[in-house]
Amino acid sequence: MYGRGLTKRFGDFVAVDGIDFAIERGESYGLLGPNGAGKTSTMRMIACMSPVSGGTLRVLGLDPARDGARIRSRIGLVPQEDTLDLELTVLDNLMVYGRYFDMPRRAIRERAEQLLEFTQLTERAHDKVEPLSGGMKRRLTIARSLISDPELLILDEPTTGLDPQARHLLWDRLYRLKQQGVTLVITTHYMDEAEQLCDRLAVMDGGRFAAEGSPRDLIARYATREVLELRFRDADTAAVAGSLEGLVPRLEVLPDRVLLYADDGEETLGRVHGLGLTPDSALVRRSTLEDVFLRLTGRTLVD
Amino acid sequence: MTTTIDTPGGASAPAQHGAPKWVRAMRYWMYQYKRTWRGSITTSFLYPVLYLAAMGIGLGSLVNQHVHGVGGQRRYLDFLAPGLLASTAMQIGGNEAMYPVMAAIKWLRTYFAMLATPLTVIDVLAGHLAWIALRLVMVTSIYLGIMAAFGTVHSVLALVALPVGVLTGLAFAAPIAAFAATQVNDTGFSTIYRFGLIPLFLFSGTFFPISQLPGWLQPVAQVSPLYHGVALCRSLVDGQVTAGPALVHAAFLLVLTAVGFVLAAGTFRRRLVT
Fold it and tell me: What letter does residue B157 receive in the DSSP assignment?
């Protein structure tokens, strides 16, 4: 799958502004970005649910504009908002969906049984969807997206709003799918999710790619190995920060603390003490994708 | 938990046996109906019985005492029953194209679920209208059966009133579905009832011939789709059908259905594919 100069416009508003990417079969690819960065618009184009406004897009080697239905018959979509039928039972939701793909009833039932097991919903098979928890509904949406045995699975914020247990169960399931060779394209707000699941990811901001690479790559490129977080109780953080300039290549002053990006946090802390400064607390931690993300997309709220 | 599933596609890919895609969309509505069919079928029996008993026989006996024949019929019941048949079709067609369409766009988002699969906007629309047609077949056949039990069916041509009832319902369902897809919430629907369906129900020749209306209103009544449905059903049930007017009535309903479908294809696309 690839996109070249892929663009999505809504009237005058440019949601996706000419992005380039290529995703290999069996790869798991993540799109990160703040709200309104263009992730969902991109996903909807890849899922052949939203026409491309400009550029080229090929999915499974086909052109969505010409072969949208054919592509959709080979992919599974987990949309951001569940589109389950709340009044039908869990099993009937799978039956109905499988019938859209024109699978024979018996084949759907067999597959539904496996998938309900896979998503740990077997005991709820004959219950209505409405009273299920958010996590169960999300798992059902994932089970449903797999009913047609897709080669490519598109997941738009699959775990938003779920509790940690449900998230970990979903990660585990997605990881297994990946091992079975399913290509995954995922959007998420959770950096740990991206780190866990994605071979490669792109950070989107304002409809463009701010960076692309493997999680480790991105950390190496846009962050240092470690971060030293300092808090000063009495002193004015900003004033103190002035004297820390030059100690490390990059530092960030927040209202309550100073972040020093360094390859060796302990060594840097030693040099801070050497300056005669005594921070109230000091924490050395490894850099994470979150540091990369915030560096690339800023700390201001977007919406 | 060591369940694995055979993915990705290939050997175990689902067999395709090629049902048309609009049929696949229609199946959804059939699944949904499994939940509500008991109540729905009961209503389909109850309403005709109540209406025909109260208005056809009760009110009808009063009418029959004072006028000798209405619209060429000897009994008021015979005049009323085919009109109610068409009116019921209108109501079912209209209802099914309002809240269910809004639900499928907004509340349950069923259309979006369908569009993530090989189905297209046209399949989604055609499947829904096909389901409405099927509902109309059920309701109209029950109505005809009850009319027969009341002794108001006077010709085998009454069987043709079945497809005419379906067509009357669709002539409302298609344009109303087109409208429903443009609505942000359901307040517009009460306008349709208040200024559309209810006035049509009362003034399209169901309860009295439109020749009773003031002269200036008669041409207005004649462009009411329900008027054409009522007139055609009545002539068929009585076995007094003449080709010319019958064709005009049928053509009017067909054109309205077709125009409604084209409009709905546009409004559905604008709403669902962005």
Answer: G
